Amino acid sequence: MPADFTVVLDAGVLAPFSVCDLFLRLAEEPRLYSPRRTEAILDEVRRTQVGNLGWPEDLADYWRQEVTASFPEAFVTGHEPLVAECQCHPDDRHVLAAALKAPADTIVTFNLRHFLADALEPHQIVAHHPADYLCALYERDPGVVTSRIDEIAANRSLEPVEVLRRLRGPLRRFTEHVADRQGWTL
Fold first, then answer.
1. Whole-structure pTM value
2. What is the C-alpha separation between 28 and 178, in angstroms, rounded?
3. pLDDT tens-digit profile of 98-154?
4. How does pLDDT run across 53-74, given as a tens digit for each residue?
5. What 3-state DSSP class applies to 129?
6. What is the pairing mode between strands 6-9 and 34-36?
7. pLDDT of the residue at 2
């Protein structure tokens, strides 16, 4: 997959650290995709991290600062006027507007019910569950994906299969797919 394959990552993908860590590592060189997000998406991530995941405010602020510094090209601005033409769920019209402005043809989100095909098809945009998108990335370049899993494992003093076990809850299809291809038992 070319590095210029542009994807809008919804807040639900960026808020849980383990999911975000894998996705953002896959956007580092050699990139499998180019991530996009907005200030509004990062605001939602912070609310989730602090309000739902119990992160201290200073940690959430530090995370945002680091992500912003690491991927400055990922910010989408000027998308607000496009919100009015978006017909997906009202709470996520800003995400679709960001995809239109980016431009991106893919939104990765856990909340697929807010991005129904009839609202996306007129814009030639699709929404994918993170597990399905990760499976597609793995099929395109299994070496890069497994090397990023290895990096996470090394950073956390874990075996790679343990990284998959820890991701199994939110990313079951992906973890089972990789485990099957690698001959690992989860």
1. 0.95
2. 20
3. 999 999 999 999 999 999 999 999 999 999 999 999 999 999 999 999 999 999 999
4. 999 999 999 999 999 999 999 9
5. coil
6. parallel
7. 45
The 10 Å Cβ neighbour count of residue 124 is: 9
Please give the angle made by the CA atoms of 10, 4 and 13, to the nearest 5 degrees: 15
The structure tokens listed for 19 are 């999911």
CB-CB contact of 54 with 48 (8 Å): no
Q: All domains of the chain, ordered by start, with CATH?
A: 6-128 (3.40.50.1010), 134-182 (no CATH)
Write down the residue that tokens 């569950």 correspond to.
Answer: 129
Quote the CA–CA distance of 54 and 47 in Å, as a whole number. 10
88's tokens: 């997906």
Name the residue with tokens 């919100």. 83
Q: What angle do CA 85, 86, 92 make, to 5 degrees?
A: 145
Strand partners, 34: 6
| Cross-sheet strand order for the sheet of 34-36 | 34-36, 6-9, 106-108, 126-128
